[in-house]
Design a protein that fits this description.
alpha+beta; binds zinc ion
């Protein structure tokens, strides 16, 4: 498989069968993000009563890049501390938005999304869920009772 085929396979798999796509009533943090130019809308749910992110999920609808990115997000940040999740998100955003350096290995499959750099209108699709995650983690008043 070349990189484009691998990209198609992984993105299609995640967009057709998104992981952790469900509401989370017990979430301690949540945030909504939308990308009107494409029609993407995602809500990210985080369960982190302490420092560790115990669970992550999302709901919403959008293009395959948006949904695949959100699906991979839930797999990557579960189990991380909130600070590590922020760092991870920044590493991902830097890969998409920053200088064109080799993608860090820690990003795993997410490195395939580097290809959206070639399509500026899709950059927001790839980063939408990550912005929502950061926003959720920054909440001053978590939704937990
Ligand atoms: Zn999109």
């Amino acid at each position: 498989m070349d990189l484009d085929e691998l990209y198609q396979t992984v993105i299609l798999d995640h967009s057709k069968s998104p992981r952790n796509k469900r509401e989370m009533p017990e979430a301690t943090h949540r945030a909504f993000g939308d990308n009107p130019s494409c029609g993407d809308e995602v809500e990210v749910y985080v369960k982190a009563p302490g420092e560790t992110i115990e669970d992550v999920s999302f709901t919403g609808a959008g293009c395959s890049i948006c949904i695949a990115s959100a699906s991979m997000l839930t797999q990557k940040v579960k189990g991380l501390s909130r600070d590590d999740a922020r760092d991870f998100s920044k590493t991902f955003s830097d890969m998409i938005l920053g200088e064109d350096l080799p993608a860090p290995k820690m990003l795993g499959d997410l490195r395939l999304l580097k290809t959206v750099r070639r399509f500026p209108q899709r950059v927001k699709c790839a980063t939408l869920a990550w912005h929502a995650l950061e926003q959720a983690l920054d909440e001053e008043n978590p939704t937990a009772q």
